[in-house]
Amino acid sequence: MTANLLDFDLDGLAAFCDQLGEKRFRATQLFRWIHQRGESNFDQMTDLAKSLREKLKVHAHVAGLSVLSRHDSADGTIKWLFNVGDGNAVEAVFIPEDDRGTLCISSQAGCAVGCRFCSTGHQGFSRNLSTGEIVAQLWFAEHFLRRHLNTPDRVISNVVMMGMGEPLQNYSALVPALKTMLDDHGYGLSRRRVTVSTSGVVPMMQRLSQDCPVALAVSLHAPNDPLRDNLVPLNRKYPIAELLDACNQYLEFAPRDFITFEYCMLDGVNDTPEHAQQLVKLVRQHATGKGVWCKFNLIPFNPFPASGLLRSPAPQVQAFAKILLDAGIVTTVRKTRGDDIDAACGQLAGDVRDRTRVNERIAQQRTIVLKPVTDLTANNKEA
Ligand code: SAH
Ligand code: SF4
User: Could you report how far apart the first and last alpha carbons of the chain are, in Å?
Assistant: First the structure.
């Protein structure tokens, strides 16, 4: 087995190069070839000594993920579904805006937290992604987009860990992936522009604040414990008061001076004026006295039949937002992007898994090996 170099942050790559008897600056050169230039063929890395290239060919490889499908929205949003093997797929979504390009990526195939309103949660947990599989989503998207948009410049300025999975339940793979995103020899992203979104794995929030403090979004979704226990089962382990204390501790090390609370608006479940008032009380109870310490992002629920839940009507969302705003809490309502390609939250991967299960049943009868629907080159004509 040779090493997949996408699995290493720069320190990891330096340790690997050391084993090959190579100096650290060689690791830096290699890292730049892979992440900044998107190169996977060692023969193309012309400023590396031939002897090193030969060693790399024996001991290493650079393996991305194969693309199962790509969906382009009329608004410029692009969604990819990547094959991670054994009938599992994960998604990444690129969202272009005037002043930034955001890539939303996945950290796990499925998710063990099991939130009621989340189709990934309904699929259950398959496995953690490796560092290489997390980084591969960015590596692929960045270099695909440069070719696609015909630019030598960086396209992705922001990364949000808001695809499938709970990033803080895959901590050991997450941290080197984040370090690669931040590294000046890697993607050079600012800490403020890399966001980990979590359902509230309190001990790991504390570790992240020490190991790799990036921007933090916390999926709150309810203003009291009984309701949050029901919507986000992890709340039974780490209830709201503990979670908000952990948020405040995180802020001491965070690159931004506020936490973003995500709140998925579910009709008649968590969207009444009473819920909004309870939130205001919570925010005030946990204020540190340093002014604004949190912002709310109200997310229109992306419905799927198995949830039995409905999206809150727009006037209900506006009324809810107004109560928070009137109390001085910065609140935005998330614009839905890529609606025509189901670019929100686990939907397409959910479809594929269901189809895969059907295919698996057929395969048991006929021993068919599942193949990607399209491969990278077929999907990416300019490649
Ligand atoms: N596991 C992490 C990150 C992935 S989910 C977390 O829960 O924060 C990213 C965001 O999408 C979370 O805020 C999540 O609550 C939200 N989300 C999940 N399913 C959704 C749905 N069906 N509609 C709208 N938002 C959803
Ligand atoms: Fe997992 Fe996040 Fe979905 Fe909850 S919302 S099931 S934590 S991916």
Answer: 28
Burial zone of 358 (CB within 10 Å; 0-12 exposed, 13-18 middle, 19+ buried)? exposed
Domain 3-61 has CATH 1.10.150.530: yes
Q: Are 2 and 27 in contact (CB under 8 A)?
A: no
For 307-319, the pLDDT digits (tens) are 999 999 999 999 9
Encode pLDDT of 99-130 as tens digits: 999 999 999 999 999 999 999 999 999 999 99
- Strand segments (E) across 204-360: 215-219, 259-265, 294-300, 331-333
Q: Is 360 labeled as catalytic in the residue annotation?
A: no
Phi, psi for residue 25 in degrees, rounded to 5: -65, -25
Q: What span, in angstroms and rounded, lies between the C-alpha atoms of 241 and 281?
A: 12
The span from the CA of 112 to the CA of 218, in Å, is 17
Residues of the chain with CATH 1.10.150.530: 3-61
Q: Is 324 in the pocket of ligand 2 (CB under 6 A)?
A: no
- Active site (annotated) includes residue 345: yes
Domain 66-369, CATH class in plain words: alpha beta
Are the CB atoms for 183 and 205 separated by under 8 Å? Answer: no
Looking from the CA of residue 121, the nearest atom of ligand 2 is 6
Helix axes 10-19, 171-182, angle to 10 degrees: 100
Instruction: Convert the pLDDT of each residue in 328-340 to its tens digit.
Output: 999 999 877 777 7
Task: From the CA of 164, give the closest atom in ligand 2.
Answer: 8
For 243, phi then psi, to 5°, come to -65, -45
Residue limits of CATH 3.20.20.70 in the chain: 66-369
**Atom 4 of ligand 2, nearest CA residue:** 115
Query: Model's pTM, two decimal places?
Result: 0.91
- 82 sits in which H/E element: strand 78-85
Count, residues in the chain: 383
What does the alpha-carbon distance between residue 261 and residue 272 come to, in Å, rounded to a whole number?
A: 17
Q: Name beta bridge partners: 195.
A: 160, 215
Tokens of 107: 């950290």
Query: In sequence order, what are the beta bridge partners of 184?
Result: none
Residue 232 token pair: 């986000």
